Amino acid sequence: MNENGNPGLSKSPATVTPVTKPSNVRYKIVILTFLSIVIAYMDRANLSVASVTIMQEYGWNATQWGFILSSFFLGYFFLQVPAGWLADKIGGRRVLAAGVGWWSFFTIATCWAPGFNSMLVVRSLLGLGEAVTFPAETAIASQWVPIKERARAQAWNLSGMALSLAFSVPIAAWIIGEFGWRMAFYSFGALGFVWTAVWLWYATDNPANHQGVNQQELEHILQGQRKESLSESAHWRVVLSKGPVWALAVNYFFQNYSWYLYLTWLPGYLVMARGFSIMKMGIYGMLPHLLPRTWPVTFPIGLFTRSESLRPANISCMQHLAAAPCFYTWARRLQPGRLPYSG
């Protein structure tokens, strides 16, 4: 008899197999890597926001300041490729933790630089630490994120670049205006140490070694990686012979010019050439970073790139075509006599 008093098979709880949902630890790993990029760009932007204040305190001119801004990229250049090799060898977890701890220390050490040469050294060493960020996170994603989810994960990570600048520029401007430029470096550097402690406590290189990953999530991650195989032909000569590799490299070269022009020089320009106050500079300085590369743009692109019919080259062209009117408008507005407030 069933529960309604009618003959038939009765339902037994023992015959119902419980369905266990996959855990979501991989999402938390992606969030932590996203936050590391946010902190990285906070520590890149604070020097630009403090540019006028520091130049006045030390008596440096624009040429000297240009060398100081460029010194970061010298360290960044030398370690980025070796960092990728190291992350593949020992795992991205330790490499990323070492990088964030390293650059957080030299963010704080910027406050202690007594002169021009020491500032060059400190900023170069800071760039050395930040060079590991993207290579280490790529190694982490290769272990934690299935292939079909990597575009979305990378979209989140890349959105951290612009999202960080959009919010850290006005925050740093407020801290500098209220407490002095050194406090911005102390607070941002301390935030990096907090992240490093949380990362070492929570993250692992291998999902199988994480206590929070259940069997369902582990199988989902491993099934999404089974299509991957490292071909014997995956050699530097083969990679460098591919046209799309060079096309993306050239594209990134020119894209970085405008990106880092705004990142490094816009805050100082608004204060020195336009007479903006520190706080007003913080508001205007966030505008170029408020939408490009943030999640409202990158996350939908990450969803679209799951389709093989939409090539990354087409995505790059779409991005630049969308950005071109924005850069043109800013260039027109920044011409003398075209700003409502010209200083």
Description:
With 343 residues, the chain is an all-alpha fold. The chain has a single domain (24-219, 240-333), classed as Growth Hormone, Chain: A (Up-down Bundle). It has helices at 25-49, 51-58, 62-90, 92-109, 116-130, 133-144, 147-179, 181-202, 215-223, 236-240, 243-272, 278-290, 295-304, 312-333. The N and C termini lie far apart (89 Å).
SSE sequence, one letter per element: HHHHHHHHHHHHHH
Overall radius of gyration: 24 Å
Distance between the termini: 89 Å
CATH topology: Growth Hormone, Chain: A
Q: How many structural domains in the coordinates?
A: 1
Going by CATH, the architecture would be Up-down Bundle
Number of helices: 14
The helix fraction, in percent, is: over 70%
Task: Average the pLDDT over all residues and give the rounded result.
Answer: 81
List low-confidence stretches. Answer: 8-12, 294-299, 301-318, 336-343
Report the sheet with the most strands, covering strand number, pairing sense and barrel closure: none
Beta-strand proportion: under 5%
Highlighted features:
disordered C terminus; 14 helices; mainly alpha; 343 residues
Summarize the structure.
With 343 residues, the protein is an all-alpha fold. The chain is 73% helix and 0% strand.
SSE inventory with pairings:
Elements (H helix, E strand, L loop, with lengths): L24 H25 L1 H8 L3 H29 L1 H18 L6 H15 L2 H12 L2 H33 L1 H22 L12 H9 L12 H5 L2 H30 L5 H13 L4 H10 L7 H22 L10
Helix pairs in contact: 1-6, 1-7, 1-8, 1-11, 3-4, 3-5, 3-6, 4-5, 4-6, 4-8, 7-8, 7-12, 7-13, 11-12
